[in-house]
Design brief:
- By secondary structure, the protein is an alpha/beta fold.
- Helix content is 30%, strand content 19%.
- The strands form three sheets. Strands 1-2-3-4 form a four-stranded parallel β-sheet, sandwiched between helices. Strands 5-7-6-8 form a four-stranded mixed β-sheet, sandwiched between helices.
- α6 packs antiparallel against α8.
- The longest helix has 20 residues.
- The two termini are 42 Å apart.
- It binds zinc ion.
- Zinc ion binds next to α4.
- The site of zinc ion has 5 residues, from α4.
């Protein structure tokens, strides 16, 4: 077993040290409110197996990408490059990774047996689920609320992304009879298959482009139950004053003013690349990665007070985005 910190460290190693060995990736994800540690370590899971295979490794073992101290490993997408062998790749929990590292540090010969029971199953059909609150005088402009229906098989997907589905659906429920009515159409989309390649989002975006549907603004909930702690955006600079106005209404919920570099989320990223501005109420991810993509992603982890605040913040933001007089401007050249 060869211990390597991450994909970059592996790239600097000679193949002779990797050939015929099991590569163990040791980098640990850092806990943070904005979940930034996930982006920094997830490349080990997605790119690590093929990177190790290209240097002759037999198998890959990674420290689970997540902050859990339970002995439950994390799962998620792995991408095998065409041309490198599809070697076995597994994650072990943080406590088991600690144990393996202590054993490696002793310097004695160590044998690790990898027994993988994963299978490739055929593709199956799933569907996006769409509902709308029709707008009035600007009904052809859409304010999109997005989350995803699918989840990884280990847990129930209560946080990823049952909570997001609940947040956007509850937000729409709060707005369905509100007066004055939203001027733009508020559309709720429960996306299919976010986790395994964003096919629901791709099909939706293709439809939007081919039918010339005008999406004024998009919002997504896919980081657990919240609460919302900040309002970020990605809008034309001229429209930051509008975002600030919306934020002043959210501020009493404990929401900070965030920046204008929001990615928005996975399911709306293709729309954003196509120029649709995004508004992003940021969900507190401090404990999200203790459960995300593990057997522990179950309903008892959802805090009723936090998710109620989140749904309220999404409802307020979507309603105001659908009410404002000024038109939402497309992002310059996408981004
Ligand atoms: Zn998700």
């Amino acid at each position: 077993v060869v211990q390597v910190r991450d994909v970059e460290a592996l790239a600097r190693m000679e193949s002779a040290k990797i050939e015929g060995k099991i590569v163990y990736f040791s980098a640990r994800m850092e806990r943070a409110r904005d979940g930034a540690g996930y982006g920094k370590t997830v490349a080990i899971r997605t790119a690590g197996p093929s990177a190790a295979a290209s240097k002759g490794a037999l198998a890959v073992v990674i420290r689970s990408v997540g902050t859990s101290n339970a002995r439950l490993p994390h799962t998620g997408t792995t991408v095998y490059n065409i041309g490198s062998p599809r070697i076995p790749a597994v994650a072990i929990s943080n406590p088991d990774a600690d144990l393996l590292e202590r054993q490696l540090a002793m310097g004695k010969p160590l044998v690790l047996q990898v027994n993988v029971t994963a299978r490739d199953l055929p593709q199956t059909r799933s569907a996006n689920v769409i509902g709308e609150i029709p707008g009035t005088d600007k009904a052809e402009e859409i304010v999109l609320l997005a989350a995803h229906l699918d989840s990884w098989d280990l847990g129930t997907g209560a946080l990823d992304d049952g909570a997001g589905i609940a947040i956007i659906t509850a937000a729409a429920h709060m707005l369905k009879d509100i007066e004055p009515k939203p001027r733009r159409t508020i559309r709720v989309v429960h996306f299919a298959n976010e986790e395994f390649g964003l096919s629901g989002s791709r099909a939706y975006t293709e439809h939007v482009i081919s039918s010339n549907e005008r999406h004024a603004l998009a919002m997504e909930a896919d980081v657990g139950a919240g609460p919302v702690y900040s309002l970020e955006s990605r809008v034309a600079p001229e429209q930051l004053a509008l975002i600030k106005q919306i934020w002043t209404v959210l501020e009493p919920l404990g929401v900070e003013r965030g920046g204008n570099r929001a990615s928005g989320g996975a399911d709306i990223s293709a729309l954003r690349a196509h120029g649709v501005p995004v508004m992003s109420p940021r969900l507190d991810a401090t404990s999200y990665f203790d459960y995300h993509h593990t057997a522990n992603d179950t309903l008892d982890k959802v805090d009723p007070k936090a998710i109620a605040q989140s749904a309220t913040a999404f409802a307020v933001a979507a309603y105001l985005a659908a009410r404002v007089e000024q038109s939402w401007m497309p992002l310059e050249g996408g981004s």
